Prior knowledge:
three-stranded antiparallel β-sheet, 38% strand, globular, alpha+beta
Amino acid sequence: MNDPGTRARIVDTAEAWPVAESETPFKGRVWSMRSDVVEMPDGSSARRDYLEHPGSVGVVALDEQGRLLVLRQYRHPVRHKLWEIPAGLLDVPGENPLHAAQRELFEEAHHEARTWNVLVDLYTTPGSSDEAIRVFLARGLAESQAERFAVEHEEVGMELAWLPLDEALAGILAGELHNPILVSGALALSAALAGDGLDALRPADAPWPARPY
């Protein structure tokens, strides 16, 4: 029996199995569907269909009272209005994710922040999509003095609220809050506060192998 104190660290590692065939049966405005025939380690092959996604960023905007800035938005695929954190696509190839996060905080919530850190990186649905999301922690918040961004589509009529972290955690565990970026961001924030503190988080320009910039 291995000594638990000497075991290797459990970390995700990059690996790419050979692809014998690949096609794109659907190409949309933002994302596409990819169909690959993947060669398995045992010599067999299997078709894997998945969504190709440019990547996203999210912002846990934390005020001095320990509240999160959240937005309520209609999401058609799940037929729900979900409470979420400011977030958006990496629309420009190679775009610095911090710049994208700052843009989303301004456009969706009309706020700016003085201090930025990386809070958590994740793949939303790695069995069916290659979407990677970087969630930032933004502190030192202030309402922007610039002209408001003109929103459209689902963003029209979005509600903004300030949600205490303890209420967010309770709502997550009660099954009342479902957005994955809000869930992962709030839980990561709670873990950081209970651990080495927010100043020990990664810097805002930390490397992101999933979406190099």
